[in-house]
Each structure stands twice: as structure tokens, then as C-alpha cells.
């Protein structure tokens, strides 16, 4: 099938699965060419799925069974090494982000600083930081990840200092509460604390089975109140 009749930019590409497997950037470029996608913002996944001892079949997706996911920092090394294999021309089409850290760990900033130093001129931002994320949150080991966790403050300060956009996934509610945006206050706390930081609000706070009333008005207010 042919691609779009318009040149496009894909701003949200996970180039691995939940086992950290990837066909590589050369494969991605080929698909981009067929689809008329000129550029892509690319990140791996900050977590990987455990194959529990009692499970006969290896999981491929995080919802395949009840075993946990855990943070996997090597994901950033994989993306950086794949990026380095590209020709200079194709490197200009790919915008990698750093994502392989636990957002509830105050050591997270050390990983970002380390990756930024190890692979200069590779990174174009931070994320997608997986925070409140329906069923994935419940399956991920460690503290509950949320955008206003103080462990992320140094990360946001780093992004602000280096003019890096931050891509975040932080649901505005849970799968069981649909009558109010239960976690909206967490997002707004950070928007007030870091007014200059460039934030990409992935999916605008919703994902599977997560919703809140007056959703469109809520998003319009956020955009107007926090430019």
C-alpha cells in the first residue's frame, strides 16, 4: 500500500517491543519511505516484560500475563547504537529520546547525564516517560510513577537547562474513575513549577479505558493557562 499523499512527521515511535527486540533503524527508515514519513521522533521502552518461571509461554506484550515489568536502562544504549549505524543523511530524519530510567528513583538524573555524555549529539529530548499508565502501572515494579514525584525534578531541570522537550505519559484518571480527572492536579503542579519546560503531553492524559468528563474543555484550558 502507498503512504500518505502528504509528507508527514511521526512524533511517537516505539521502535522496540516489550522484550526490547527491534528490527533496527534501517527497517524503520524503509517503512518511513513507503509511508511518506519524512522524520520520526523515536524512543525505545523504559521497561521490559519479565518471563516468569511458572509461565510456559514467553510473553510478547505487557498484558499477555500477570508477570511484572521492570526498568531496563540498556534500552537507551540500544537506540544510540542503532542510530550510529545510520548514514548521516538518515540520521537527520531520526530524533532519539532518552527514556531508560525509573521515574520514581532519585538516581534517574544520573542515567540521563551519563547517556548525554556517552552519546553526544544523539539525543533530542527525554521520554516517553511512562508514569500513570492504566494496567502497565499496576504491573511495573517500584513505587507508583507519577509526574510530580520529586525524583523527576532534577530531570525537568536538566531538560529546561539544555532546552530538551520532555515527552510524558501521565493519565488524568484511572480505569475505574471516569467522573473526574483524578490526577490532573499532579500535571498542573509541574506545569506551574517548570513553566519554561517544553512538555509533550502524550495522548493528552488518556489511554485505554481512561476518560474524564468535559475532556475537550479541560485540554483547551491547559493549553491556554500553561503556554
What does this structure look like?
It contains eight helices and eight strands; from the N terminus they run E-H-E-E-E-H-H-E-H-E-H-H-E-H-E-H. It has helices at residues 25-35, 74-85, 88-91, 108-118, 134-139, 153-161, 184-193, 215-225, and strands spanning 8-14, 37-43, 47-49, 69-71, 94-96, 126-130, 166-169, 199-201. Strands 1-2-5 form a three-stranded parallel β-sheet, with helices on one face. Strands 6-7-8 form a three-stranded parallel β-sheet, with no helix packed on it. Strand 1 (8-14), helix 1 (25-35) and strand 2 (37-43) form a beta-alpha-beta unit.
Describe the strand arrangement of the main beta sheet, using strand numbers: 1-2-5
Structural class: alpha/beta
Give the topology string: H per helix, E per strand: EHEEEHHEHEHHEHEH
Number of E-type strands? 8
Question: Which strand-content bin applies to the residues?
Answer: 15-25%
Counting H and I runs of at least 4 residues, what is the number of helices?
Answer: 8
Q: What is the molecular shape?
A: globular
The N- and C-terminal alpha carbons lie at a distance of: 39 Å
Helix content: 25-40%
Q: Taking all residues together, what is the mean pLDDT?
A: 92
Rg estimate, integer Å: 18 Å
Spans where pLDDT lies below 50 across 5 or more residues: none
